[in-house]
Amino acid sequence: MGNVGLLLVGVALFVNGLVSVGVVSPRGAAPLNLFVGAAQVVLPTLVLVQSAGEPTTVNATWPSYLFGFTYLWFGFIQIFDIDPRGFGWYSSFVAAIALLYAVRSIGTDPVFAVIWATWAIMWTLFFVLLGLGVTKAGRVDLGHFTGWFLVLLGVPTCTLSGLLLLNGIWPTSAYAGLSALALLAFAAVLSAVLAQRSAREGADESAVEVAQATAVGGVPQPA
């Protein structure tokens, strides 16, 4: 059931990334966040009920609630325009747990260690953007960087992983871990490049809209 949840999370991250780069409206993404968030709460609950308190299963399952609450909360923010600062600080807690699981997985599952590290970066970005209100890192627009980071890595770290795990295909070699780390580094660099481009295009569009509004305001218009 946990792997089924991963299938859904990938598309939620992808669509939320598109929101951050201005392709999808926040309200347009809200239903998906609510659906995925609900699934990420219901499915882990079923797993825990069936586990009879078995420690390994509990430890592997309970973090799913952190992500489920993320999507539910974010969906409510998008619908009701709630102050996102609380969500941002909550994201710092999720990032810390993800980092802990990344460190714990290095020796046994290096690929998933990289995936946990990727999620830690994503939720750290949410914290920096929404909790601290920091929108720039040098010349890079963090909102657009976060968006592209989610677009590029949401499906590979979640949906693809879920498909591989459901079909019993999962690499655990050190070479696979290094390959996953290289992919993470490449996606981060590409996200920075795309962020600069999309932020610049967005600024240009805003400038055009302002110029058009100014022109319309300064010239008599037909009734």
From TrEMBL:
What CDD domains does the record tag this protein with? UreI_AmiS_like_2
Pfam families from the UniProt entry: AmiS_UreI
A GO CC term attached to the entry: plasma membrane
Would the keyword Transport turn up in this protein's UniProt record? yes
Transmembrane regions listed in the UniProt entry = 6-25, 32-50, 62-80, 87-107, 113-135, 147-169, 175-195
Q: Has keyword Transmembrane helix? A: yes
Name under which the protein is recorded: Transporter
Look up and give the organism this protein is from: Mycolicibacterium mageritense
